[in-house]
Write a structure and sequence with these properties.
- The protein has 395 residues and is an alpha/beta fold.
- The chain has 14 helices and 17 strands.
- The strands form 4 sheets. Strands 6, 7, 8, 9, 10, 11, 12, 13, 14 and 15 form a 10-stranded mixed beta sheet that branches. A 3-stranded antiparallel beta sheet has the order 1-4-5, sandwiched between helices.
- Helix 7 links the parallel strand 8 and strand 9.
- Helix 9 packs parallel to helix 11.
- It is globular, with a radius of gyration of 20 Å.
- The termini are far apart.
Length: 395
């Protein structure tokens, strides 16, 4: 089986007014993801996805990865990844290029699994795994706190036993919102807190005591991701485990986090950090350091399932993030939707990633070739130059 073509499709969704949400990044109006299809010479297609700037992803894939890989056998994915990495090192190594070559690599794993008749987690050395722990990720800022209580209860009723909320609005809001979510989640659920990179070390340390009293499972990214020294200083003072890594790329980036003993839990995302192989290598590095692994995922159902394959293959894998913010690329993209029961995301036993894309959903949200990105705030990215509803500093 040889590589014949690699295709990129950008999907864009404009949220209806009732589904737009506020958080530390502003007011989210749109969502975006880039689907990557690797087409083999026998017509078999492997699927991956990248969560990054779509135009940069398209350039990296069509202008760089495709010429490097066309005609290559799909048998040694590590070698193919190194070819892409070496060919883009001068302008890559992190950011959009790393996400792009990682998405191609995920599609290669999907292809290899289909060729060998095995799910990806089996290719990674796991046994027959039917499910992995998963958590609901939403619970954004609310002006009416009872809305958070009812939302947490909905996630619980939908089968989740863990859920993540966003804080970092103001000291008074943070405690009140946390209590509202804890009340709705119920006594048997575990709450995760995302700090949205908004706190000082002192603020984060003080808040961690309140989180511990409410048995929060982890405290995610309270500081700016570049502040590794700050994380290293905060970690021994924090009353709950610290997690970070959604903004990091490649093994070398996570190695710096781990060498600094800056976190308790690393969060590589296969759709951002460089692919399945890099996420797996990061998880292995974390295991050797006595740390746990819980991938970030905030783009689409393909990324969720790819991250789940890595968690299933690693003994220090904790859980998988499932976006519950009315994202159609999570809720509608797959023929067989993601299924969570009793806190566990079901893993299909079919070859590759075990996902099949609904073509009508791709056509509904496809951005036409050459079309500009519609202006808006895309959760983690902004297009059009205007930050919508700017948020005041924490305090």
């Amino acid at each position: 089986m040889r590589i014949d073509d690699i295709r990129v499709t950008t999907l864009v969704c404009a949220y209806p007014e009732q589904h737009r949400f506020r958080y530390a990044g502003g007011r989210c109006t749109h969502r975006v993801t880039s689907l990557i299809e690797v087409v083999a010479d026998d017509g078999t297609i492997g699927i991956g996805s990248a969560y990054s700037h779509p135009r940069l992803v398209e350039i990296a894939v069509t202008d760089q990865a495709l010429p490097l890989l066309r005609g290559e056998e799909v048998d040694d994915i590590g070698r193919l990844w190194r070819i892409m990495y070496a060919g883009t090192r001068w302008f890559g190594r992190k950011g959009a290029v790393m996400s792009a070559i990682g998405a191609v690599e995920v599609a290669l794993w999907d292809l290899l699994g289909k060729q060998r008749g095995l799910p990806v987690h089996r290719l990674l050395g796991a046994g027959r795994v039917r499910s992995v722990p998963a958590y609901a990720s939403a619970l954004l800022w609310a002006d009416h706190l009872p809305d958070l209580t009812s939302e947490a209860a909905r996630h619980r009723d939908a089968g989740f036993r863990r859920m993540k909320m966003r804080l970092a609005r103001s000291p008074d809001y943070d405690i009140a919102a946390l209590d509202a979510v804890v009340a709705g989640a119920g006594p048997d659920a575990e709450v995760i807190v995302d700090g949205s990179m908004r706190y000082s070390i002192d603020q984060a340390r003080q808040l961690s005591g309140e989180l511990a009293r409410r048995k929060v499972f982890w405290f995610e990214e309270p500081l700016q991701p570049e502040d590794i020294e700050g994380f290293a200083a905060l970690r021994p003072q924090s009353a709950v485990p610290l997690a970070a890594g959604e903004n990091e790329f490649g093994v070398q980036g996570f190695a710096e986090l781990l060498r600094s003993d800056a976190v308790d839990i690393v969060q590589p995302d296969v759709s951002r950090c460089g692919g399945i192989g890099e996420a797996r290598a990061v998880a292995e590095l974390a295991a050797r350091a006595g740390k746990r692994f819980a991938p970030h995922s905030w783009s689409d159902a393909i990324a969720v399932m790819a991250n789940a394959q890595v968690v299933a293959s690693m003994p220090n894998g904790i859980t998988v993030e499932v976006d519950r913010s009315h994202n159609p690329f999570v809720d509608e993209l797959l023929v067989s939707p993601l299924t969570v029961r009793d806190g566990l995301l079901e893993l299909p036993d079919s070859p590759g990633l075990g996902v099949e894309i609904r073509p009508e959903i791709v056509e509904r949200y496809r951005l036409p070739a050459g079309a500009p990105m519609p202006p808006g705030t895309y959760s983690d990215m902004i297009f059009g130059g205007e930050r919508l509803h700017q948020i005041a500093p924490f305090g």
